[in-house]
């Protein structure tokens, strides 16, 4: 019985794999960071049989998991910081990331699943804004390369997710190439 349903599942999902790749390709071409979009979506198994709305959700969830990871990173750095200015700048970044991780992104993901694309787009773009604000607070000799890279990646992932949601706003909900 198990084998049978597995076979059935394979038969159903196999022919569409090519199609999904095409959809991912078409969608990523409409985002500002094609390579990042492709590598992010193709490394995620939840993209199989997804339409545009599903792919936007996958991207938003990866953004959330990146933001969550960055917040943990910031907290760990706060514990290690010996320079009080560095500690303050990190604490400021944590304050920026907490609402993104706790409210903005989870609410945006929820809105996305309900078809409230405008609200979703706002919440997702907040992540980029806060990453920028965090980045700006580090200047001059105070620099934390690993955090800068994370802020930059978060900004790019947010831009990609917003671009996909914009396709949904244009009515391309079940857009297939
Ligand atoms: C963050 O995003 C990158 C780019 O897609 C991905 O490779 C990485 O696994 C993500 N990290 C987390 C913790 O989700
Ligand atoms: C950066 O953080 C410091 C505290 O470390 C704060 O006093 C300052 O106003 C912040 N700068 C910006 C541009 O937010």
TrEMBL record:
Keywords: Disulfide bond, Signal. Belongs to the PMEI family. GO terms for molecular function: enzyme inhibitor activity. It comes from Hibiscus trionum. PANTHER family: PECTINESTERASE INHIBITOR 5-RELATED, PECTINESTERASE INHIBITOR-LIKE. Residues 19-164 form the Pectinesterase inhibitor domain. InterPro entries: C/VIF1, Invertase/methylesterase_inhib, PCW_Enzyme_Inhibitor, Pectinesterase_inhib_dom. Residues 1-19 form the signal peptide. Pfam families: PMEI. It comes from the Eukaryota. This is Pectinesterase inhibitor domain-containing protein. CDD domains: CIF_like (cd15796).
